[in-house]
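W.,

You were right to be curious about this one. When I first looked at the sequence I had no strong expectations either way, so I just let the prediction run and decided to look at it fresh. Below is the sequence, 330 residues in total, followed by the output.
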Amino acid sequence: MIAVTKILVTGSAGHLGEALVRSLRAQGREVVGVDLLASPFTDIVGSIADRELVRRCLKGVGGVLHPATLHKPHVGSHTRQQFVETNVTGTLNLLEEAVEGGVESFVFTSTTSAFGRALAPPPGEPAAWITEDVVPVPRNIYGVTKTAAEDLCRLVHQDHGLPCVILRTSRFFPEPDDRDEVRTAYDDENLKANEYLYRRVDLEDVVSAHLLAAERAPAIGFGKYIVSATTPFTREDLAELRSDAPAVVRRLVPGYEEQYAARGWSMFPSIERVYVNARAREELGWAPRHDFGHMLDLLAAGEDLRSPLARAVGVKGYHDVSVGPYTLRA
């Protein structure tokens, strides 16, 4: 459990923000939620780009959990300047005011999307083995601003000693995929089950990683971790994953085909990257529950693939007016 008394959660009306507030409240923690949108989990409505508002939010706060961000779905609807104001200026405001306020731990929610073009090896090459040591090559303003915010976390830690932990989370959104060809080719549950092999994580596990990071930040000082479901793959599988992913899964997870056949599902023919969570498990003591094997157990039992927390939070959306397949707010 987090040792500090009062926790600030940014983006408290969003997927992860709401999940964090729910979980902290369930622990009996004192929580302040801030978001542009009013919600049952938002105590202060406003922008983290507003320095005075941030200062007010941090009054008496001992720890910061910072998932508030403009996301990839906003790339087509928001300007680059808006991304800078929220993702960079907002993060800097929080970091500097956290220093002034004597905050004990700061957890910044980043994204595996920050790796960008490093995630796609050239044709004919093995799948990429993505650890924290891979150098990001951002492909859009979302990735650029998230990596810039990560650098600010490192800078403020180095200059002022603020304990900062960065969590690069993989996919946990419940909406359908934004690629037309993928939605056409795969049932949505089929797609998400496949992704647990290499690029998806359940919201419940994301929350547990954040709470552990907040607890351990003072001892860690500064750390950066990939938060994704534990993969069954190893480096030795990378070449075959690129050329024949079903054969690798068949070898490592016997019985998956029976569950898939019963539903008319299929495995991706090729997998181009694998996210590796070993450092988070070792250094944070993180023990994610939801992986591909767990998905198969849930399928066999006829149960929902989502955790109870993910079901409770539900679908959020990203815009008031639909500008794509998964962006309309409920």
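Here's what jumped out at me. Residues 197 and 232 are 7 Å apart (CA to CA). And, maybe more interesting for your project: The mean pLDDT is 92.

Coffee later to discuss?

I.
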